[in-house]
Design a protein that fits this description.
13 helices; six-stranded parallel sheet; alpha/beta; Rossmann fold; six-stranded mixed sheet
């Protein structure tokens, strides 16, 4: 079955451009309009081919767009969101996309095909919103990323201060005597979250007069166990002098720890590892993770509350920053006399 994405791929134009043509918008070049309409006619494409949605004048759906399929923090937030929505007259519709996909282009499709009353974004890249979000006219909340700088009338946000939290994580490692710290994080040009956390790391290094060589001590890793496993191997091969690793998610930290153990390196006796998120597994893993704790239940509940107020009461955009905490587990040891000690 032909989709908007298929039309975009065949025509060479973006999903948002295809959407504008299908909506008879004028802000499209004649060339683009002609090419897209030719493909639509050739494939007998009918927008919104789901008869159920075509018949609905008023949707009771809250769309939840989740960026990343292996993010355990997002899994916990989604569960809380569903519990919250179940207590209302609305239903939740969940869509998962790859962590490198364009979430706003996907949201354009979701809005066309499902006609939700509102939308929650878990994870997001501000650049994607700047380029395409004007196509979306339903109330939205960006969860886990701050959206106040975007200044859209229909976009609120509820988030942890990623930059400040990462700065806190590096501060803690340095306080434990670590100065040669490796970092495992996402591709910063694609992951706004990774970039914000990286900036926080740099703030801490600068504050403590530590020169951080990104080419040596930063290794990219998707937020998944297996990808983090191999990223840790690459990092250690290049930077074998590290005494600690800051992983930008607990999933990444757990993958890194397994890689170190398989390489015959003891954690935390030889290399300390610190995570970020505070997922449930962190306190049951061996060693118990030292990590930054995000309040996932509060992130979820406030996001739903803000969105429903927006939908039902037409309230103004709200941008909230939720406090974080530092959980001291067993995966970080203090350095005394150049070695790691309890």
């Amino acid at each position: 079955m032909m989709t908007i994405k298929d039309i975009a791929k065949e025509s060479g134009y973006s999903v948002s451009t295809v959407s504008r043509v299908l909506n008879n918008r004028r802000d499209v070049s004649p060339e683009a309009k002609k090419r897209i309409e030719e493909i639509v006619a050739e494939h007998h494409f009918v927008p919104n081919n789901n008869a159920k949605h075509l018949k609905q004048n008023v949707s009771k759906t809250i769309a939840v767009l989740v960026k990343g399929t292996s993010n355990m923090l997002f899994a916990s937030i989604v569960e809380e969101i569903q519990k919250k929505i179940e207590k209302t007259r609305y239903t939740a519709s969940i869509t998962y996309i790859d962590e490198d996909d364009n979430e706003v282009e996907e949201a354009v499709i979701v809005c066309r095909e499902r006609k939700p009353m509102g939308m929650l974004f878990l994870g997001g890249n501000p650049q994607s919103f700047e380029e395409t979000f004007q196509e979306i006219n339903v109330p939205c909340v960006l969860v886990t990323n701050q959206g106040n700088a975007l200044k859209f009338d229909n976009l609120s946000s509820v988030a942890t201060d990623d930059e400040k939290a990462a700065e806190c994580a590096i501060d803690f490692l340095i306080e434990q005597g670590h100065t040669r710290i490796g970092i495992l994080g996402g591709v910063r040009s694609l992951s706004h979250t990774s970039n914000q956390r990286y900036l926080g790391c740099l703030k801490s290094f600068a504050k403590h007069d530590i020169v951080f060589d990104e080419a040596v001590y930063y290794e990219t890793a998707r937020f998944s166990y297996d990808n983090a496993y191999y990223a840790m191997q690459r990092l250690y091969k290049r930077a074998g002098d590290i005494t600690a690793v800051f992983a930008m998610s607990d999933v990444t930290a757990i993958g890194a720890i397994r890689a170190l153990i398989d390489m015959g390196i003891k954690v935390p006796e030889e290399i300390s590892v610190m995570g970020f998120d505070g997922i449930a597994l962190a306190k049951y893993y061996n060693p118990k993770l030292t990590t930054i704790q995000q309040q996932y239940s509060t992130l979820a509940s406030r996001s739903v509350e803000i969105l429903l107020n927006y939908i039902e009461l037409s309230t103004s955009p709200v941008h909230e920053v939720i406090p974080f905490g530092l959980i001291q587990g067993e995966s970080v040891k203090k350095i005394i006399g150049g070695t790691q000690n309890a």
